[in-house]
Amino acid sequence: MINKNKKAQEEMVGFAVIVIIVAIIILFLLVFYIKSPQKASVESYEVNSFIQSFLQYTTECEDYHGGMSVQELIFECNDNNLCRNERNSCDVLSSTLRGITEQSWQIGEERPVKGYELKIMSSSKELIFLKEGNITSSYKGGLQILPPKYGESMNITFKAYY
After folding, report:
1. Whole-number Å distance between alpha carbons of 93 and 147
2. What average pLDDT score do residues 97-109 get?
3. In whole angstroms, what is the distance from residue 38 CA to residue 12 CA?
4. Are the CB atoms for 73 and 63 separated by under 8 Å?
5. Architecture of the domain whose range is 44-161
6. For 131-143, what is each residue's pLDDT tens digit?
7. Where are the chain's structural domains?
């Protein structure tokens, strides 16, 4: 009888050792998982989609057909034209893009996006330059070239820093 009890105790100790070893392995895996760097929170397709979507946004600047899109307003700003409601097209463009980027790319130390930069250039001058937050060495960017209208093409670049 004593031999049977001794074998049972040995089996229980062996089982306890196995449970402790498995728990330690799980603990190490959990620590490595928590300390591993997080993946980039911004992807290139998100930046390119953002550019494409804000170009289609309808602004408060009106022509005879109604509200103009940001894309149309970029060319109006380049030509220094006024909106139908007598507002400066460049002022409307700047305030519209500032509002869109602030809502779409919320920045902060606790957020994935640390900063952004939006630049719209014609072949002769810089129309818009918006920059917010911290500029880091890690970023995803996109470029959109609008076809020439009246001889000038427009380059739109956007960078999201993370």
Report:
1. 19
2. 92
3. 41
4. no
5. 2-Layer Sandwich (3.30)
6. 999 888 889 999 9
7. 1-36, 44-161
